[in-house]
Write a structure and sequence with these properties.
- With 459 residues, this protein is α/β, with parallel strands linked by helices.
- It has two domains: 175 residues, Aspartate Aminotransferase, domain 1 (Alpha-Beta Complex); 251 residues, Aspartate Aminotransferase, domain 2.
- Helix content is 40%, strand content 13%.
- The protein contains 17 helices and 16 strands.
- The strands form six sheets. A five-stranded mixed beta sheet has the order 2-8-7-6-5, with helices on both faces. Strands 9-14-11 form a three-stranded antiparallel beta sheet.
């Protein structure tokens, strides 16, 4: 008997035409974009896998919520609905809306951090680390060592290594560590999850020193899905139950709702401590707006509240993970190395292994992103030297990251599996001519978040 096919748990009500331009036109557009895929225009792109942030398709109930938004400046009914949703779904009494996750980081980190502080992470993403750095503090990676081994399977490569955490605290003292943070899932390491056991152990270790634990919770339901699939004792629990247990071990979180909740704009901070909440909203009023709207329209607050209930939909999440897995298996079937196991929101191609002749100084991940666009109009994101290198402020020495990855982030409910076939076939053609790829050099770079704004050219 053949394999039982499970179709998408939704039907399509609206379609947006896609545009594909010729190879000659793509060569022209990427040159005009200074060989940085961030500078490409929407009409230049056929399949856009740059990010899953704010690019997902909303449900009919999300669209319906949009029309129910209350635009009252202070005391909006839509804020009350968001507050109720956060308490029911995550278990937090205090919520501070922001226009997106980075704004949440700005408010939380600007309140908690002081010059010289260190923040232990499993691994921070680029913008998270930048928000800590701009407050004159530093991040410390405490992820398990196997996270850097792209080829070996481990069910929870996002786990924090407790021995590393204890060592950092003992070396610098708990006074210099305002909080510990876990990214769920670990985006920088390939969309890898953190186990419930590790979350509990991290909380226990931090509490030993009276240090709070926070989550970067953008893909927390994907993390819950992997716990359900891979961790003993959770197979019969719902995603909603697993997610709420996860959040019970943290003192608060920042949340980019443009990921798992699948809204086009919005985020928030949620905390348990009222005193901290009052400090945070005083900063929020300065940077984002009054505490009952936080830079969002009432309609966006209403959609965000609805989305928190929908993000734990079992069928939607299963289809989402399966589509990413389908893309990853198609790519590995073509003999192209990726991070193993396949992540929750994206497939991460190992550019070091695919382009072994291109040294890190020549930006292999970004060069691969350029070639994939030139080949088929597919936009991915290079996450390597440009995104994660560190420069010593005294000596000027540059430390390269352990990995060079091309991230192919799949928006939720936007593309079909046939689009994923186009991506894997295009990568196969790039692989066939990989010896022609010599890398890129930087002609301009900003002081922070270089991959967003740098200008490059081929070597």
């Amino acid at each position: 008997m053949g394999k039982k096919i499970k179709a998408e748990p939704f039907k399509i009500k609206a379609v947006e035409p896609l545009n594909i331009i010729t190879r000659e036109e793509r060569d022209k557009r990427i040159k005009e974009a200074y060989y940085n895929v961030f500078n490409l225009k929407a009409d230049d792109i056929y399949i856009d896998l740059l990010t899953d942030s704010g690019t997902s398709s909303m449900t009919d109930t999300q669209w319906s919520a949009l029309m129910q938004g209350d635009e009252t400046y202070a005391g909006s009914k839509s804020f009350d609905r968001l507050q109720e949703a956060v308490e029911r779904v995550l278990g937090y009494r205090y919520v501070i809306p922001t226009h997106q996750g980075r704004a949440a980081e700005n408010i939380l980190f600007g309140t908690l951090l002081k010059k010289g502080d260190l923040v232990p992470f499993n691994q921070p993403f680029d913008s998270t680390a930048a928000h800590i750095n701009v407050n004159e503090a530093e991040t410390v990676d405490c992820v398990v060592d196997i996270a850097y081994d792209t080829q070996t399977y481990h069910p929870f490569k996002g786990n924090l290594e407790l021995e590393k955490l204890h060592r950092v605290i003992k070396e610098v003292g708990k006074e210099k560590i305002p909080f510990v943070m876990l990214t769920l899932t670990n985006n920088s390491g390939g969309g890898q999850p953190v186990s419930m056991a590790n979350i509990k152990e991290t909380k226990r270790a931090a509490s030993k020193y009276d240090i709070p634990l926070y989550f970067d919770a953008a893909r927390c339901v994907e993390n819950a899905y992997f716990i359900k699939q891979r961790e003993s004792g959770y197979s019969t629990k719902t995603l909603a139950q697993i997610a709420k247990e996860m959040f019970s071990y943290a003192d608060g979180c920042t949340f980019s709702a443009k990921k798992d909740p699948a809204v086009n704009i919005g985020g928030f901070i949620a905390v348990k401590n009222e005193s901290l909440y009052l400090d945070l909203i005083s900063r929020l009023v300065l940077y984002e707006g009054f505490y009952t709207y936080g830079g969002l329209a009432g309609r966006d607050l209403q959609v965000l509240a609805q989305s928190l209930y929908e993000m734990t939909n079992e069928d939607f999440m299963e289809q989402r993970i399966q589509q990413v897995n389908y893309l990853g298996e198609s790519i590995t079937g073509a003999g192209i190395p990726i991070v193993n196991p396949i992540g929750g929101h994206a497939v991460f191609v190992d550019a070091k292994r695919m382009l072994p002749h291109v040294p890190q100084s020549r930006l292999p991940a970004d060069a691969l992103a350029v070639e994939l666009y030139r080949e088929a109009g597919v936009r991915g994101l290079g996450l390597g030297v440009l995104a994660f290198s560190k420069q010593d402020t005294v000596t000027g020495a540059v430390t390269f990251p352990e990995t060079e990855l091309l991230r192919l982030a799949v928006p939720r409910r936007v593309y079909t599996d046939r689009h994923m076939d186009v991506v894997s076939e295009a990568l196969s053609r790039v692989r066939d001519r990989k010896d022609e790829i010599s890398g890129l050099k930087i002609t301009y770079e900003p002081s922070r978040l270089k991959h967003f704004l740098s200008r490059l050219e081929p070597l």
